[in-house]
Amino acid sequence: MNQHTQKIAIVTGGASGLGLATSQKFVKEGIKTIIIGRDQQKLDDVKAELGDLAHTIAFDLSDLEKIPELIESIKSEFGQIDILVNNAGINMKKNFLEVTNEDFYKVMNTNVFSVFAISREVSKVMVKQGLGSIVMISSMTAKYGIPKVIAYTAAKNAIEGMTKAMAVELSPLGIRVNCVAPGFIVTAMSSKALDSDPERKNKVLGRTPMGKMGAPEDVAEAVYYFATSSSSYVTGTSLAVDGGNSIGF
Question: Which N-terminal residues, if any, form the signal peptide (predicted)?
């Protein structure tokens, strides 16, 4: 592998929420971070905030056909890819009986198909290096049933399964694959969902042993652990960062 001390990371959906917290953590730790997102304004703001170690690319990951070209251009420009964080995702809250085929496909395309495609292309680069770490972002929906999020639930269970399958194939080649499953974290997306639904919010807090929601930084720390040599003998695992929610009663 190219033994640069400078690590190169890709964070998808890295301009807001958990992805932004991860990008901030990586840059703080001296990792050159390539942030992929769809919103040019958000990308510009993050670039201004994080400075020279942050590089932004406006790209819609649902355009699967263009992903190989994207990764090839990143490899050409930066010479290596050490870390991939598959954070980009969309959600849709809708009664199961009302979810259309198109609704379901749209969520699966962004949350599963694009993760598969970008992981495959980045893995080709990492295999040549003989080293790399891929971090998936799952969710509590992969731990138990939550109503009105059928497509998201299917997607995140797929992510957990892919983590294990990829780890088995890629770990002998030097690439570790792990997963972080955030519980209920305070972000713009979760606040919007929970503040308008007090019953759901009380249920969330009531079954979380720590009695509070997490901060995006809590998730970023877990991602950083998996991304770096601190977890050099860990692969194929899923870590719940949820204040105990997934085992709460």
Answer: none
